[in-house]
Predict the structure.
Amino acid sequence: MRTTVSIPGMHCESCSMLVKDVSSEFPTISSVTVDLKSKQVTLEHEDDFDQDAWKKEIESLGDTYAVHAA
Amino acid sequence: MGSPSKKKDAKKEQCLTVGITGMTCASCELLLERKIKAIPGVASVEVNHKADRARIAVKNGCTLDRDALASVIHAAGYSLTDENAATLRSVAPDKRKWLEIGASLLVIFALYTILQTLDLVSLAPSTSGALSLGGIFVIGLVAGTSSCLAVTGGLLLAIAAKHNELHRSASSAEKFKPLLQFNIGRLAAYYVFGGLVGLLGSTITLSTQATGYMNIVVALVMLYLALTILQLIPKNSCPIRPPKRLSHWIAGISESKHPAAPMTLGAMTFFLPCGFTQSLQLAALATGNFVMGATIMFVFALGTLPSLLGISVISSKAPGNGSRLFLRFSGSLVLLLAVFNLQSGFALTGIHTSGAFAGDKGSNAAVAPTIRGNVQEVSMKVTSYGYEPSSLTINAGVPVRWKIDGTGATGCTSIMTIPALNISQPLRSGENIIEFTALEKGQLAFMCSMGMVRGTFNVI
């Protein structure tokens, strides 16, 4: 399955690495693509991926990383 | 560590600090904190991107595997400053920073001296230059390598450096984009405003005083950018503390990724004090026609393009390690230009300064006036180096007939100003006469329209 969300606060390569790093802790996510220009993150994941848990984990990084629906 | 400690943490943890380079923002901190925390034995970690260091607490009984730390930091795209002697951190990079800044200043000074000796700085057509479109293009070409570059090029460098600092990983093409936008905005503005000048029949230039204040504001912006680029003051902090809204606006404009930001800055350069721009505005004014006025200013801006694009290309092509050196070099250059502009601004607004860039060093022996009837006469020549002589003696209360040979006038020296007396006069090739009376004894400063070339009357 594929889910695309928007994280408007992302501004640099570190942000994208950060999102990928957090995502790597979720075994249900198979791949993460970050587009810094459009501020969009595309996740390839299994059906039982817990998006709320992922969102919570990303947003715990700080206010900058608020996750919005794409 | 046998003695009992009051702090529980200190008893079971061991702290060490390491230097890390390459961090630019809070995201870098978060990223590294996560990565370092994952190393076995690490109890907690605190990364500070402004100080370029990480404080790592290691669980008691464990030792930190330095190789693991180095590889983790490296994998994230950063580097450990001194892998063998963590406790000696910050000494090395600080020293290196100052060395690089010093070297940059030396190189700039050497280049300036060489250019001046070879008479290349002032390789400019005089006021008598033909005003065909081809001639205007050439004037633009020359303006691009002259004092005008001090302001416009300085701003461009500041944008480029700031952009590089913020987007280290961006490709050359991406780095080049804002600089291209800057130049597009500049060309468009010159066309439109040039047309307006022709149509309205009046120049869009500021008064001497306003030009001075403009110079000071531009210089302060450049100074702030230079100091942050050189990391002499931490990011987002300014010791002078300008009004919050102003600094936000400046930071916003120079750091914004929106294409309109560099374009607006480019467009604003029309109003930047530049003698060449001013003299061509006079030419556009003379046409009294939108298209002709617009074409003159556009062609002029086109002429300045090669050197401005040159700056853009060099700054966007600077590769990884070179980009740090580029930041140091351009930071130093912007710093010097800022000081230069600041002095000009102070001179125009009537604040007396003296310094390394105090204009002309030609002949400093004051020349006494020739008395003719009830008028005293002094003569002076405008050369490509400045005013000759740059120091003139006149008597207070007696009308002065000031004869100026304007044949060598170029760029800003094609307009002569005495800010204190509100005199501002364009110089023609050949003899020009300015008449005034100095009432007060003391020093009376005169200068070009940008305040960059200066001289004084000794009123006795």
